[in-house]
Amino acid sequence: MGVPTTLYCVGSPLLTSAVLLALIAAGCSREAGEPPAGGTGAPATSSAAPAAPASATEPLEPEVRDPITDATVTASSTLPPFDTAGLFRASNPGWHSQNPAMFPEWLQVRFAEGRPIARISLLPQYQNGGRAPARFEIQTSADGRAWTTATTVENGCDGEPGRWRTFPLPSAVMTRWLRLLITDNCSDEPLLTLRGLRVE
User: Which domain range does residue 87 map to?
Assistant: First the structure.
């Protein structure tokens, strides 16, 4: 005959394997051979319902790594109140262009000083991925007037819904200004939107 499995629950006496599942559901912790501090207490019950699992459709909060604080973001158009202020923090719901978008639209970043850029990442709105930029040029400038195209993205739509999409440059570029010149979104929706922008 096997040795019964035992379980200790904080504030409860020693209990046997007959109530193992009930105790786990009640949130008790299993300790290898250690009784609870204080020795005795009221018996645990299984009346407490376990916490409801998160919805399978609820998105995880996107990762925000060291959001840029020394830069200003402007746009070709904005649908108030959904401006560009929260793009580096991936604030929901993010930037919205005018409705309908009049392509080309652009997002422009002015840094406090020149910095190297090797890639950018875009975070589309969750469940509104069709509004995300589809075709765009990543451009740089020393003065905000004369622009050089570092790379052109023909399909920015691939990726999981509500997850960052990263677009590397062919080589790192030192720049004071950055611009996304957007010529289309990922669907026939009239709006162009973006929740987050990351520059690395």
Answer: 71-199
